[in-house]
Amino acid sequence: MINFRIISKILGSLLFIEAFFMACCLAMAFSFHEDDELAFMASTILTFGGAFIFLFFGHEAENALSRRDAYVVVTLTWVVFSFFGMFPFLIHGSMSSITDAYFETMSGFTTTGATVIDDVESLPHGLLFWRSLMQWIGGLGIVFFTVALLPQLVGGSVKVFAAEATGPMRSKMHPRLSTTAKWIWSIYVLLTILCALSFWLAGMDWFDATNYSMSTTATGGFSTHNGTIFLASPLIEYLAILFQFLAGINFTLLYMGLIKWKMGSLFRNSEFKMYIITILIATALIMYLLLTRLDYDFEEAFRSALFQVVSFITTTGLSNTDAGAWPHLTWIILMVLMFMGACSGSTTGGFKSIRVLMLLKVLRNEFRHILHPNAVLPVKLSGQSIPQNRLTTLLAFFTLYILALLLVATIMIVSGIDITNSFTIALSLISNVGAGLDTNMGPQMSWADLSDGIKWLCSFLMLVGRLEIVAVLVLFTRAFWKEN
């Protein structure tokens, strides 16, 4: 049976962390003397109150999680965090609809970056900071953050890590998961600080530099200005490309390459090589199209193409130009990148480069089997053979991914959304990109135009995409809730 006491205890402890971050936003609101002070004060109190209630129901629980408990606690954490996270928007009055507020909050925590706020610049600084902070918290995973801070709470549970981590391969840099989590979060914090300092030294004011650094390293895409177009200098755009690219690398590899100075481990990794090659090929193709079909000079074409390619493959969703005005072939390239995603174990969404590489190797082996039926052809990544059960899981995941895309797109078409936008929305949300092919979602639509029912469906799709489908959908199976 599911141990709801330990789940309640963990949720209560996590809500204390969320309340602390809200208190940081309260301090930001006080420093700017704007009208969101009361909203954050009330939200912090309500979140603390919710934490005490959850802890009360779980005060006698033992710190032992089963695999089922881990899947329930991870999914509920994201749902509950988003529920309490929407209070500042509702209490402040910048959003009057619970649907809109929950959509915005889920989009933040899942680092999707889709927003229903058309006039972002009208928000006070505290709420802008909260939007960026939500993305930063969700970048590496809310519960994974807890493993780093409070390992005794979940016993450094590998089950929790497996339920929330992205990608099919789990790699650890230390025998103790809590130590691994601390190192990964240390790298994440270091990247964020370096990104903020770089933006500030390049000419951004400190507030924008801080917010864009969180949005960039979390590969989220929320902006402090209207639209997602990154209106900045070429230097800042190149810096954003660099930090988006780094955030798309497996953080275990980043640790080995940047902290341990074992750069060879990066270039021996099959997924990293796939990530690099994909970026180079896509950038070259788009750059060629911009130079031959549009009035771009060489440097501008290179910078615009590279920015969009890195932004879409890392599922950040920021932009430095209106890609909706580009040739249609570039849209197809960007949609492929949106589907593919960057490396597993990073802050990015999408299908993941490692899964694409595994699928390609499986297809290659199938063609070889036609010519050599008796040959034994293992699938190898970075010199290691992939077990057959992982390949079976891969095919099941791919099937679920495609079925989810088709189902959601079909529902949206039936609800009255045109076919192009329906598939763009579905792919954008399940990949946690949050961007269409221009500054909004399409030439004549914004996320705010969606009906309430579709927004709730989108919120669920963002959650499913962030927790990689199976971790959420398994909760809806009958077998999961059986006692055996």
Quick overview:
By secondary structure, the chain is mainly alpha-helical. The protein has helices at residues 4-32, 37-57, 67-85, 87-92, 98-109, 125-139, 142-149, 151-154, 158-164, 177-201, 206-217, 234-247, 251-259, 263-267, 270-293, 298-313, 328-340, 353-371, 388-414, 419-430, 452-466, 470-473, and strands spanning 380-381, 384-385. 65% of the residues lie in helices and 1% in strands.
Q: Could you characterize the architecture of this molecule?
A:
α1 (4-32) packs antiparallel against α6 (125-139) and α5 crosses α6 (125-139). It is globular, with a radius of gyration of 22 Å. The model is unreliable at 437-444 (pLDDT under 50). By secondary structure, the chain is an all-alpha fold. A hairpin with a 2-residue loop joins β1 and β2. The termini are close together. Strands 1-2 form a two-stranded antiparallel ribbon. It has 22 helices and 2 strands.
Specify the helix fraction band: 55-70%
Number of helices: 22
- SS class: mainly alpha
Which H/E pattern describes the elements? HHHHHHHHHHHHHHHHHHEEHHHH
Main sheet? 2 strands, antiparallel
| Beta-strand content | under 5%
Low-confidence stretches: 437-444
Q: Rounded to an integer, what's the Rg over CA atoms? A: 22 Å
Q: How many DSSP E strands?
A: 2
Strand order of the largest sheet: 1-2
Let me know the average pLDDT: 85
Q: How far is the N terminus from the C terminus?
A: 8 Å
Shape assignment? globular
